[in-house]
């Protein structure tokens, strides 16, 4: 790791570039640890452009940790609607409640305490500590691992959890003690904009320090072997109205995928008729059936192929967890992205 010998020159080149070229993002205009915490949770597995309006709406709705701590779960799910990975916001609220109850509403400023909070892993802890408090701590995400694997020529599989320590140690060796906030953000920014999977090396401010570029190996890094097999599931969803034009919805279970969100009644497709299976399982009789285009949605390790049907109830009868809602009530409920796609098909 010969770059460590030229650490100061590397820091200067990286920080000078970041100061001149960094994107103007709303969470970069604050050192409020609560707001930075929110942004980091939202940015996990989500594109920056997607996050910006969610972040701005969220901090407007819950401007203080006390506001988020006191909020009903349905309210926070509604503000997260469409962002996906809903356990993130549940964990965020749980962590914030811990801060309010245990630390008097002040986010801990050391790794030991902040890491005990629900949903705060090593990356999020380091990001909050360095960005909000100026503590020289590592914040290693996928972008940072890609950058450092090339600069330092780390030819280890980044998909293996044990190898993350290599990158955390490297950051601690290289980080600017004077400006750890900008240093960590600069590494992330470099990975997001220049040192991308298909790198733009001619634009890179630290190309002179990059061992992979020097050896022509930048396209081969990072090494990532582990790949989880995608599961494909076929479903049928039914957008059903009663005689008053209200819509039939059900609430998902309180644990698991898309927990506690509302959706049109859905069943997993079998070999026999989707409609017959649905009527038998739900105890309903349908009429005026209309098949709509399929909805395709990809989660991290599962893909849903949803056959969508629009129908009316033959008899005014529901049971179990099914409830009717007006259009306005449906719009106010927290729903998943697949359900929002179905609503788009209904053209209401």
Automatic annotation (TrEMBL):
It is an enzyme of class 3 (hydrolase). Its EC number is 3.2.2.31. Binds 1 [4Fe-4S] cluster. It catalyses: Hydrolyzes free adenine bases from 7,8-dihydro-8-oxoguanine:adenine mismatched double-stranded DNA, leaving an apurinic site. The keyword Magnesium does not apply. SMART domains: ENDO3c, FES. Keywords: 4Fe-4S, DNA damage, DNA repair, Glycosidase, Hydrolase, Iron, Iron-sulfur, Metal-binding. Pfam families: HHH, HhH-GPD, NUDIX_4. Residues 42-193 form the HhH-GPD domain. SUPFAM superfamilies: DNA-glycosylase, Nudix. Its cofactor is [4Fe-4S] cluster. InterPro entries: A/G_AdeGlyc_MutY, DNA_glycosylase, Endonuclease3_FeS-loop_motif, HhH-GPD_domain, HhH_base_excis_C, HhH_motif, MIG/MutY, MutY_C. Adenine glycosylase active on G-A mispairs. Belongs to the Nth/MutY family. This is Adenine DNA glycosylase. It comes from Sporosarcina ureae. The lineage of its organism: Bacteria, Bacillati, Bacillota, Bacilli, Bacillales.
